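User: Can you recover a sequence for this backbone? Please restate the input before giving your answer.

Assistant: Of course. Working from this structure:
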């Protein structure tokens, strides 16, 4: 496998994990992941430090995924009628017992966070990155990463319907 093929595969893998975590499984997540892989291949010569490839791909994947998510919200809002509830966040999926599906609840929770908080949470809990790598992706200090994660967890704890998600794992 050539270096270019390996980079494309790595970019597609990272982008897919990010897109599915935020958008859910489906065509939109696959399209975003493919767009990210194409963008990475087209612009790989612009990357000055090859050691920062993953951070660079994460940044592109997060931006493209959030852009797609905003576009979906705008389309839904435009299609909604005045008495329609489509302007609200989508209802999370439930299983047979009526409990929140964890993946759907996670996506719902992420939609309620600020963009940088969402990025930090996805990088930590989906990609399992340490604070130093999250800081590199977000171009900030490690202390800022800790603040973003802490703030996001506090906001999640304030959401009673998502309480079990915030107690599932302890911060590192």
């Amino acid at each position: 496998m050539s270096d270019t093929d390996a980079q494309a595969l790595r970019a597609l893998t990272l982008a897919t994990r990010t897109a599915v975590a935020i958008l859910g499984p489906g065509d939109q997540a696959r399209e975003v992941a493919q767009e990210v892989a194409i963008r990475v291949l087209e612009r790989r010569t612009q990357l000055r430090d090859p050691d920062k490839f993953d951070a660079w791909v994460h940044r592109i994947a997060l931006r493209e995924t959030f852009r797609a998510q905003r576009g979906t919200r705008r389309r839904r809002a435009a299609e909604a009628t005045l008495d329609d509830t489509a302007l609200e966040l989508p209802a999370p999926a439930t299983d047979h017992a009526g409990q929140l599906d964890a993946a759907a609840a996670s996506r719902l929770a992420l939609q309620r966070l600020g963009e940088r908080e969402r990025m930090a949470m996805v990088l930590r809990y989906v990609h399992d990155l340490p604070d130093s790598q999250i800081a590199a992706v977000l171009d900030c200090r490690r202390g800022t990463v800790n603040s973003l994660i802490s703030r996001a967890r506090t906001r999640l704890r304030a959401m009673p319907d998502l309480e079990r998600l915030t107690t599932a794992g302890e911060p590192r």
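That completes the design. The mean pLDDT is 80.
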